[in-house]
Write a structure and sequence with these properties.
The structure holds 2 protein chains of 2 kinds.
Chain A (H helix, E strand, L loop, with lengths): L9 E6 L3 H8 L10 E6 L3 H4 L2 H5 L6 E3 L11 E4 L5 E5 L3 E5 L11 H12 L3 E5 L8 H9 L3 E5 L8 H9 L4 E3 L1 H9 L8
Chain B lengths: L3 H17 L8 H15 L4 H10 L1 H12 L9 H15 L5 E6 L5 H12 L6 E7 L2 H9 L1 E3 L3 H10 L10 E4 L2 E4 L1 H4 L2 E5 L11 E6 L8 H14 E9 L14 E5 L4 E4 L4
Parallel strand pairs in B: 1-2, 1-7, 2-6, 7-8
Antiparallel strand pairs in B: 3-5, 4-5, 8-10, 9-10
Classes of the chains: A alpha/beta, B alpha/beta.
């Protein structure tokens, strides 16, 4: 697995059922000093979502930051969409939130995040769909690809719940279809910045 | 750097402002774009330019577009811990005023205004209170005035109310008919619903409490600053401001004049000024 050689500024990840376990593999693989902002939508029962920061901060080399509306995006950070809000990325880039209706029965919605990432980061975005039920994220991943970004999908057969990756693959032809181990390798190979 | 889609969006909000005097020019672009995409699908348009043409030439569709641009669905006693904090920490200070004015800014279809009225009734303060509930969407205001909600939402409303420290049964405040509930008219008497824009209008009364939650997220930093400055001007000294859990005061030119009062529920107290 080698890196395609383009500059990636944002990685947007969508996951649902089985997502915490999958993210425990994928997020810690992102190396320290990676000048990339990582945005994650994970569908979870409401009471568990607020714990994501506590679960992931100790595991990750990148810094897990709390999402506050209109905060400037800091490269090298991981942002989880907060419970009951859509997370969007606006020009700046900065974080934006909305409480508009659920999309694909979901709020936060993967598609809402991905479409906003596509508009702001274009070819410097990477979208990744991991395990999950339902079809949220397929339209968003198509938007990332349409704007020139990279579309990555977890190989459905290797996912705890294949529906969400399979829906994405029905919608588009992904640039990469990978197992979790291959995604980890891909992430480890991302070019990092020399630490000052 | 600006794409054709960005430019189309700027032109559309300018067109709406000049034709209909609704000012979305300082709305956060990402969420506005999303809302307009949904509207484009509804109106069968393939681009924002096409939508702009229809909005300019067919005034009757503007009313419907406004629904897509503004309407928020809310719940009664949403974020019960916010109402619990009001009840336990703010109400004791509100009791010291002979009369109370409270502003629910961006009230949409009225759920928060009625929640506040119920809380004040339970705390024995409603009779000396006037709640101003404002929004820019005339349809939402009409629905708010009617005080009619889907009966399917009652279990959530009831659970939220109980967790907010409710001292009575929520069912004391509505009557149910078929698939709807209608809220008690005696609450309605203490609420003034009116048209007011945080983007273009000014302060209209002195308040002891302003509650504006999950409205600022739709604004850019400049409009957030304008709205927060209005709240600063409207509040009496030591008045209270409640905002959404993911919102902050940092873009206000008066941010220093507010002290955290209940940090985890985003309730602030105005300390500066006269």
């Amino acid at each position: 697995m080698s890196w395609p050689g383009r500059r990636i500024d944002a990685i947007a990840i969508g996951a649902s059922f089985g997502g915490v376990e999958a993210l425990k593999h994928v997020l810690p693989a992102l190396p320290a000093g990676l000048p990339v902002a990582v945005f994650v939508v994970l569908h979870l029962p409401r009471e568990r979502e607020s714990l994501l920061g506590e679960i992931f901060a100790p595991l990750c080399a990148l810094r897990v930051r709390e999402v506050m509306d209109k905060d400037a995006v800091v490269p090298g950070s991981i942002y989880f969409a907060p419970p009951s809000y859509h997370l969007l990325i606006d020009r700046g880039p900065q974080l934006a939130l909305s409480m508009d209706d659920p999309v694909e029965f979901s709020r936060p919605s993967v598609t809402v995040l991905f479409e906003s990432v596509a508009a702001v980061y274009a070819e410097h975005a990477l979208g990744l769909i991991l395990t999950g039920a339902g079809g949220d994220g397929a339209e968003g991943l198509a938007a990332i690809q349409r704007e020139g970004g990279l579309a990555v999908v977890q190989q459905p057969a290797s996912a705890r719940m294949p529906n969400m990756p399979a829906s994405a693959l029905q919608r588009i032809s992904a640039d990469y279809v990978l197992t979790l181990d291959e995604i980890m390798t891909l992430f480890q190979s991302l070019p990092t910045q020399a630490q000052p | 750097m600006e794409s054709a889609q960005d430019l189309e969006l700027e032109l559309l909000v300018e067109a709406i402002y000049h034709s209909y005097h609704y000012d979305f020019r300082s709305y956060a672009r990402a969420s506005l774009r999303r809302r307009l995409q949904v509207a484009m699908q509804r109106f069968g348009c393939t681009s924002l330019s096409q939508l702009q043409g229809r909005v300019l030439h067919e005034s009757e569709i503007f009313g419907e577009l406004l629904e897509y641009l503004t309407v928020q669905v809310s719940d009664m006693f949403r974020d019960p811990s916010y109402f619990l904090a009001l009840r336990e920490k703010v109400v004791p200070l509100l009791r010291t005023y002979p009369s109370l004015k409270i502003w629910i800014a961006g009230c949409s279809t009225g759920e928060e205004a009625y929640s506040m009225a119920i809380l004040l009734r339970e705390e024995g303060l409603l009779d000396r209170s006037l709640i101003y509930a404002t929004d820019i969407n005339p349809n939402a205001l009409r629905r708010a005035e009617a005080g009619i909600y889907d009966v399917a939402k009652v279990p959530d409303f009831t659970s939220n109310h109980r967790r907010s420290g409710g001292r009575s049964s929520l069912s004391d405040y509505y009557s149910a008919a078929y698939d709807r509930i209608i809220l008690d008219k005696s609450l309605r008497k203490h609420i003034v619903f009116s048209d007011h824009s945080l983007a273009t209008d000014s302060v209209f009364a002195e308040m002891q409490l302003v509650s504006c939650r999950n409205v600022l997220i739709y604004f850019d930093r400049a409009l957030q600053s304008r709205a927060l400055d209005l709240f600063y001007e409207a509040l009496c000294r030591r008045g209270f401001l409640g905002i959404g859990l993911r919102e902050s005061l940092r873009f206000s030119s008066h941010a220093d004049a507010f002290a955290e009062f209940v940090r985890e529920d985003r309730i602030y107290q105005k300390t500066g000024g006269l």
